[in-house]
Amino acid sequence: MFDLAISGKNICTPEGMREGVVLVKDGIIADILPSLPGEVSKTAIDIGKRVLMPGIIDPHVHINEPGRTDWEGFATATRSAAAGGITTLVDMPLNSSPVTTTGDAFDQKLAAAKEQLQVNCGFWGGVVPGNLTEIEKLIDKGVLGFKTFLTHSGIDEFPNSTEPYLHQVMPIIARYGLPLLVHCELTTNVQPPPVSNERSYQNYLSSRPRKWEDDAIALMIRLCEQYQCRVHIVHLSSANSIEQIKQARQKGLPITVETAQHYLYFNAEEIPDAQTPYKCAPPIREKENNEQLWQALQEGVIDFVATDHSPAPPAMKEINSGNLMKAWGGIASLQLALPVLWTAARKRNLQVSHIAQWLCEKPAVLPGLQKRKGKISKGFDADLVVWDPDSSFRVTAEALHHKHKITPYINLELYGVVEQTWLAGQLIFEQGNFPVLNKGKIITS
């Protein structure tokens, strides 16, 4: 007797969309059959024409606990994730206090997460100058890889790496086959013009030029080749770097790339002045640039899409002043990852199967989860989302489970309504409610 049978006409499998029934036993997908062979499960549901897709994986999220739980915490972040069809998160090592750059800090992170997780959560360790002796300690404790910045991170406790330091760190990370995730902006290579109007979006955009990204990515490609260390470019926003990434791939270098929903949904030309919810780094660029990002995503040059959910309290976002230069750079969007991407994709006549590639299958590879997560396939974890691609909804602050409801998506009409989220075959979200709480697990390498 199976524990669960989900029947539907639109099951998103690696082979394509198909009609059938997914059978679940002990939290694992036991089989996928054309039809239900009698009474074989304790629970059977029929989702009709709604889509059954693998649970979404977001490997770029700032949860900020411990230490800055007033920005976001495990309880609010993971419930937001569940409400958005996300079943696995990987938490970034900065914005919490202490930052996750030592073995002791990682222990504190795990203790804070315990019994608060609505979905599964893994962790990246941090690479900062001076923590060379902590790298292997963090690996032994189970981090899934490492994150570093090439410019100021916004958090003084998490200073940026320099090229000489990366020469020391990358051979160690390469030896263990783990990825190094890099915020690619080299802010010393070119000085932007002085900003006269700090409320002007165009002035903010000019203050972080594409060349910062392009030079940083060139550096990481060179170091990737030298050490054969897996390098992952986070939140690519400069389309100028697409060609050099293509060439690196053609050489067989172990380099992967993500972009974020906001670079694919918004365009700089449409962003009003003084609207700090749009501020992120690198910035949202022009329509022509962002269309090239879409093309690179469809061609596979960009591997997947992740939110870079990075919330902050209203005062830090300078909501009242509208000062884009002072405001915290980060966009809150965790709960909206699926509908934002789907709304933009359907305008381009793209398919649900593309969404499954970019939000489920490809993101599973970066943290090494591709053998058990990201696909509706026999033997994989029964992490699943049921959603309606043809229904739309208006984003309201009241419906968001993020700690702070500040997001540029408020009042937008989005397609793709998440109706159910299943974690290891257990229903953890349904129609705005959480039937069970804190069933998520900590994922370690």
UniProtKB/TrEMBL annotation:
One of its GO terms (molecular function) is allantoinase activity. Residues 51-427 form the Amidohydrolase-related domain. Its cofactor is Zn(2+). Keywords: Hydrolase, Metal-binding, Zinc. SUPFAM superfamilies: Composite domain of metallo-dependent hydrolases, Metallo-dependent hydrolases. Pathway: Nitrogen metabolism; (S)-allantoin degradation; allantoate from (S)-allantoin: step 1/1. InterPro entries: Allantoinase, Amidohydro-rel, DHOase/Allantoinase_Hydrolase, Dihydroorotase_CS, Metal-dep_hydrolase_composite, Metal_Hydrolase. Its EC number is 3.5.2.5. Gene3D superfamilies: Metal-dependent hydrolases. Belongs to the metallo-dependent hydrolases superfamily. Allantoinase family. Homotetramer. Catalyzes the reversible cyclization of carbamoyl aspartate to dihydroorotate. This is allantoinase. It comes from Niastella soli. The lineage of its organism: Bacteria, Pseudomonadati, Bacteroidota, Chitinophagia, Chitinophagales.
